[in-house]
Amino acid sequence: MSQPISAIETVEMHTGGEPVRIVTRGYPPIPGATILEKRRFARENLDHLRKLLIFEPRGHYDMYGVIPVEPDLPGADMAVLFIHNEGYSTMCGHAVIALGRYAVDTGIVPAKAPFTEVAIQCPCGLVRARVEVAKRGENFVTGAVSFESVPSFAFALDEKVDVPGLGKLTLDIGYGGAFYAIIPASAVGLDVRSSPVAALVEAADRITKATAAAIPLEHPDDPDLAFLYGTILTDGRDAFSDELTRNVCVFAEREVDRSPTGSGVSARIAVQVAKGQVAVSQARQFESITGAVFSGKALRAEPCGRFNALQVAVGGRAHYSGRSTFTHEDGDELGKGFLLR
Fold this sequence. Notes:
By secondary structure, this protein is α+β, with helices and mostly antiparallel strands. It has two domains: 4-148 and 320-325, Roll (Diaminopimelate Epimerase, Chain A, domain 1); 153-316, Diaminopimelate Epimerase, Chain A, domain 1 (Roll), CATH 3.10.310.10. The protein is built from five helices and 18 strands. It is globular.
C-alpha cells in the first residue's frame, strides 16, 4: 500500500456559512519580497496545492481557503493569501473576520478585553480587524469581529454594458479590496430572495465576463489588483433604510458567497455614497443568501490615487467547524483534485 507523500493541516471555520480553511502546517515556504510577489509565486509554482485543498475530494466547487505567509509590511501581525476555485483573490472580508478570531485564539496576537486589534496584511494591503474579547475567569472568549480594509471607491457609475442573452444593462463598478460589478437583480428579471440560485449564478457570471471585456480597470497601487473579481446582484435597496438589504455575490469561477461578502459590502457602500444614497457614518445591514448579516458603514474620506475613496468598516461573526489533516497518496490521480458541478 502506498504511503502518504504529503500532509497539510488546517483549522476549519465559516463566516455566515462561507467556508474558511486556514492552513496551519505543511505548506511549503512561499518566497517573495512582497505579498503580491508571493501571490504570483504561489500561482505559478504551487497551484497543485491550491487544487489539493480546494477541489474535490477534500473540498468542493465553493470552498475557500487561507495560506499564512510572512508579512512584509511594518506593523502587520500576520499576512495571508486567499485561495478559491479559480485562483488567488486580493481581499476577502469573510476570511478576515474568521482570521481575527483565529489570531487571538491561537495567541498570534495576545488577547485583551474588551477589544483586541489584529493587523492582517492581505494582497490588497493592510487590513485592521477589531475582535470582541470577553474575560471569563482566567480565559478569554472571542466574539464578533469588525475590520477596516483598504480604501474603497466607486470606479464607474451607471455604465452601459452589452451582456449576451441579457441585453444592454446599466451597472456600477465598486472596489473594496477587489472590484465588483453591482446591479439590482430586477434588472435581469430576477429576485435575490426568491429566484433559483442557478439562475442568479448564470446571470452574474454573464455580467462579470461581459463587463471585464468591456471596461478596463485600474488601481493606483498595483496592476495586479486591477481585475473584475465578480458581480453582486442586489435587492435594489440602496438608499439608506433601517431595513436589511440583501445581495448575492458570484465571484471567481461562478463561486457563490454564502456570506454577504466583506469586500463586496465595502464596494457597495462606496458606490452608495458616491451616488448620494448613503451618507458617511450611516450604518447599514447587509444580508446574504443564507440569511447571515454583516454591518457596514463608511467612516471617513481616504483618498486613493485619483479616486475619492472611503474608509469602510464591516462587521460579522465567524465560527469554528473543525480541524483537518489532508494527505495525498502516490499514484492517486483523482486525489490531486477535480471539480464537478
